[in-house]
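FORM 12-B: Structure-to-Sequence Request
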């Protein structure tokens, strides 16, 4: 590796330590307490004069004042001061600390606990050791790594220097745990389904394609878990869920990443109204886990996940904001003509379903700030959802929205194999007309439906977007540890 001047200086110190018989990377640590354990029980440990061994990264500047030195270490649970004197540590290691150790090095210190004259809890060190000598120095400004792209490319450094970033991912873990608790106590069984699939389905999206050499078979990274989970409902499991990665070959923006985390669940003998109540329960529990209350602030807007959410039919929502009744404009030509006649500025789409979705995305979705359910989608937009008994041109489907973002999608699941076959055929025609996100024909799924699937409610929720909202992060990259980034040019 080519080293710059600062790296070379640190590497030289590392070499001198080796010459002195000190391993810069010893095999193990003798730590007895985490820093948070020390701080929690500090007074008791100090009163008992119990020696402790703590370990962590040196953060901030080391302060050396004659025969006394100070440093703070951090271990991921907290920060603690080391009080180091030449008299207690001895000349060799005091000088080694002064001359060969640096900020960002990971060290181990043994000593007794006392408070300094200003009351700061400290380890008064009598033994010091090195656990990892760092060659890369910290960022020039200790206040933090601020370049957004560098933060995402070097997430490890971002986590070291920006404690608020660690807090976001701790909140993410707490929210997912809360989600699991709601589902587990609700009788759902957590399962796993294939990531590599011979036929992609369950969403309107372009897949990533790969090849299985031994089988000589083209496979796809899953765009959704839906069709496999519903096979399990056919198999007699009363409720199932999966939390895992999906992959969609799409653009990257503030709310989209090609690799993202979804929760999908399916419940036998339920419908989309059951799923609405489940969404409310899940968001309430997740918000409590992250914020301690059922409200969240996103970009200065206060969102309330406590009460029941409003339910607004898609047809009525589009009519209110565009003046168009999509129920009476059932052909692509008449819809295009009505859009032009009303002076609506939307991108022209090749199919009726895509054009309706574009109208909704442009004129309705940005206005959905408070948690809201948009319900009853057209059949053409919902190839896996059951028709409404009183209006078979629409389906029992809803999407959950907040701050203009879709957070979840749910149906009363289509369980009629013959209707499902026709929907797949219709999707095939849309694909031929230019919709490269249309669903594929899945013969095995149709065969599963021929064995009978009970009335079922299904739900998918985007965990990354939910965390954006609950943790007040304006970009999805802020809640994904390693987001997709364009490769740097050489």
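FORM 12-B RESPONSE
SEQUENCE OUT:
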């Amino acid at each position: 590796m080519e080293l710059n001047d600062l790296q070379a200086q640190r590497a030289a110190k590392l070499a001198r330590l080796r010459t002195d018989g000190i391993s810069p990377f010893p095999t193990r640590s003798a730590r007895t307490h985490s820093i948070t354990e020390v701080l929690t029980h500090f007074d008791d440990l100090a009163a008992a004069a119990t020696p402790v061994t703590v370990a962590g990264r040196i953060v901030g500047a080391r302060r050396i004042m004659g025969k006394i030195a100070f440093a703070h270490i951090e271990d991921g649970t907290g920060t603690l001061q080391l009080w180091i004197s030449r008299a207690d540590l001895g000349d060799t290691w005091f000088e080694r600390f002064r001359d060969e150790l640096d900020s960002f090095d990971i060290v181990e210190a043994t000593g007794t606990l006392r408070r300094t004259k200003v009351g700061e809890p400290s380890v008064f060190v009598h033994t010091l050791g090195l656990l990892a000598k760092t060659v890369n120095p910290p960022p020039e400004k200790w206040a933090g790594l601020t370049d957004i792209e560098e933060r995402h490319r070097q997430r490890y450094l971002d986590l070291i220097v920006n404690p608020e970033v660690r807090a976001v991912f701790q909140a993410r873990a707490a929210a997912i745990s809360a989600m699991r608790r709601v589902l587990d106590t609700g009788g759902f069984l957590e399962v796993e389904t294939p990531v590599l699939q011979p036929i992609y389905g369950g969403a309107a999206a372009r897949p990533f394609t790969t090849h299985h050499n031994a089988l000589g078979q083209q496979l796809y990274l899953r765009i959704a878990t839906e069709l496999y989970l519903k096979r399990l409902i056919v198999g007699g499991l009363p409720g199932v869920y999966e939390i895992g990665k999906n992959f969609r070959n799409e653009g990257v923006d503030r709310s989209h990443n090609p690799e993202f985390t979804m929760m999908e669940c399916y419940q036998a003998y339920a419908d989309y109204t059951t799923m609405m109540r489940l969404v409310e329960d899940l968001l309430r529990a997740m918000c409590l886990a992250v914020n301690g209350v059922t409200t969240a602030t996103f970009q200065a807007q206060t969102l309330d996940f406590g009460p029941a959410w409003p339910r607004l039919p898609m047809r009525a929502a589009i009519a209110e904001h565009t003046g168009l009744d999509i129920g009476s404009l059932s052909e692509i030509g008449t819809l295009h003509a009505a859009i032009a006649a009303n002076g609506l500025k939307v991108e022209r789409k090749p199919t009726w379903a895509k054009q309706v979705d574009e109208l909704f995305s442009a004129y309705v979705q940005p206005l959905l700030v408070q948690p809201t359910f948009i319900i009853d989608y057209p059949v053409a937009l919902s190839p896996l959802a059951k028709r409404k008994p009183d209006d078979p041109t629409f389906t029992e489907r809803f999407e959950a929205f907040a701050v203009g973002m879709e957070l979840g999608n749910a149906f009363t699941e289509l369980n009629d194999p013959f209707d499902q076959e026709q929907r797949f055929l219709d999707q095939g025609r849309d694909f031929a007309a230019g919709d490269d996100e249309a669903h594929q024909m899945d013969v095995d799924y149709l065969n599963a439906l021929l064995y009978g699937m009970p009335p079922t409610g299904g739900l998918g929720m985007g965990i990354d977007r939910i965390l954006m909202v609950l943790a007040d992060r304006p970009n999805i990259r802020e809640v994904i540890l390693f987001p997709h980034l364009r490769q740097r040019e050489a």
